[in-house]
Amino acid sequence: MRRWSRLTRFWLGLVFTALFTVLTVGWLNASGIAQESSAPSTPPLPPLQVHPLPVSLAQWQDDTQQGNYFLQVSPTEVGYLIWSRFPVRVFVEPVDTASSEANRDRAQHWVNAVTEAVQEWNRYLPLTMVESADNADITVWRRSPTLQQSNGTLRARSAETRYTLYIERSESAPPKLVHRFTIELRPSQTTDYIRASARHELGHALGIWGHSPLQTDALYFSQVRNPPGISVRDVNTLKQIYEQPTRLGWQL
């Protein structure tokens, strides 16, 4: 069961490439445990500011007044995890053509289910599929997350989502605070559950860093027998998140 708990923090400093300096790593696993780690010394962060709403969310209207679960979403030390550069680039691990036919078939079912989830969210935020993980904002990998110990027992998790904060540097522009997401999805699930897991974890990666208390929402904290699609409440929550200030996407 996925459950939400308060953020915990510990310090970590890493440099990944000449262009990107890692600041923070945070993750939300399939049990809903959110964690965060930060570099011990970072440059002054940008002030909290509001980005313009993407057109798809600006045009979204809920005439039924179904509400949202915005209060269940936790901001991070840099504010809400909002994308400001569109379309958001998504990489989905492709089928290994060197594997056996049976493995290729299973992998293709996984790819198809994840791709469908990406297309569902694309109705509300501009997303595009890319062929290289190096060029992606969100990467989705076909593998099981590491085992989690609970009450002395190792338990398998169906999915895990992590984010990393970077300082993006280039010769032609001032440094900017940006982020990336990594999603791991266990492949040994039925197609419906793979699609539901992908839909749920992509919701986190698009900014819903929390869980809904209602089973009718895609971001419900636990897996259900008949997984729902993206609900009006999910989109209402996403829109309110994108109306909030963030330090992401702004110059240092």
List keywords for this structure.
two-stranded antiparallel ribbon; 24% strand; 252 residues; disordered N terminus; 4 helices; globular; alpha/beta
Distance between the termini: 39 Å
Q: Give the overall average pLDDT.
A: 84
**Which consecutive residue ranges, at least 5 long each, have pLDDT under 50?**
1-24, 30-41
Shape field: globular
Main β-sheet description: 9 strands, mixed
Strands, total number: 11
How much of the sequence lies in strands comes to 15-25%
In short:
It is built from four helices and eleven strands, in the order ββββαβαββββββαα.
Q: Could you describe the 3D structure shown?
A:
The protein has 252 residues and is an alpha/beta fold. The chain is built from 4 helices and 11 strands, in the order ββββαβαββββββαα. The protein has helices at residues 55-58, 101-122, 191-205, 232-242, and strands spanning 8-11, 14-15, 20-29, 34-38, 88-92, 127-130, 138-142, 148-150, 153-155, 159-168, 176-185. Strands 1, 2, 3, 4, 5, 6, 7, 10 and 11 form a 9-stranded mixed sheet that branches. The chain has a two-stranded antiparallel ribbon with strand order 8-9. The longest helix is centred in the middle third of the chain and has 22 residues, at 101-122.
